[in-house]
Specification:
The protein is mainly β and about 220 residues long. Helix content is about 10%, strand content about 50%.
Length: about 220
């Protein structure tokens, strides 16, 4: 959904994490993580320009470069926002700051209650006492998908429990039934439908948003 730039600034808060892509050419881009510092409505935005990024781009012209920015706002339901613009100026002292032209429009997508979060979090799958190391591929209140790299004999309708760092954020146990099994060169991807829908409390939702953002930034 495209929205006018006037609606963008109320969604931006200092310290908000951002995924940034500088596009120098059709097949020449550089991605990094940053955070929103501030700006002036309808004129410019200011984001952090980390020293490590500056070192890697020391021979590149950063000014007047096409830029794509994505982030997740802290609205009640959460909104994924994204926009394209171009850089205005880079300031190195006293710290690295990148000035960006205010975009004319931006994309805004509210996060649905049953949103499927793309995450990469380590987990253990327990099937009748057998444990398999895995990691989440995605997660929703009704189920999840995981990738197992080691050999296993999991099949559809097997009852399993998923153990991970997400457990402490939720009162419900991640137990359910295997609904799909897909083997590939990288491992076995299994889909699980939870026995009961998970309550998406504020702590769990914030953690999922953070992990989804990190997965998007590293991809």
């Amino acid at each position: 959904m495209s929205s006018p730039a006037s609606e963008l600034f109320p969604l931006l808060k200092p310290g908000m994490k951002l995924s940034v892509v500088l596009e120098f050419g059709p097949k020449d881009s550089f991605s990094f993580s940053s955070q929103y510092i501030g700006g002036k409505a309808n004129l410019y935005l200011i984001i952090d320009f980390p020293a490590k990024v500056k070192e890697r781009l020391i021979m590149r012209k950063v000014n007047n470069t096409r830029i794509v920015i994505r982030g997740v706002s802290d609205t009640k339901d959460g909104d994924i926002i994204a926009f394209q613009s171009s850089t205005l100026a880079l300031i190195n002292n006293p710290t690295g700051l990148l000035f960006i032209r205010s975009p004319q429009h931006f994309a805004r997508k509210p996060i649905r209650e049953h949103e499927r979060y793309k995450i990469d979090v380590d987990a253990t799958i327990d099937f009748a006492g057998q444990k398999f190391s895995a990691h989440f591929v995605d997660f929703s209140v009704s189920g999840c998908a995981l990738l197992i790299k080691d050999p296993n004999e999991l099949e559809e309708k097997h009852k399993v429990t998923v153990i991970s760092e997400l457990d402490e954020l939720c009162q419900s146990e991640f137990s359910g039934q295997v609904t799909s099994v897909a083997k590939s060169k990288v491992g076995t991807k299994i889909g699980i439908r939870f026995n009961e829908e998970i309550e998406l409390n504020d702590k769990l939702r914030s953690k999922l948003l953070e992990e989804a953002f990190n997965a998007n930034s590293s991809s």
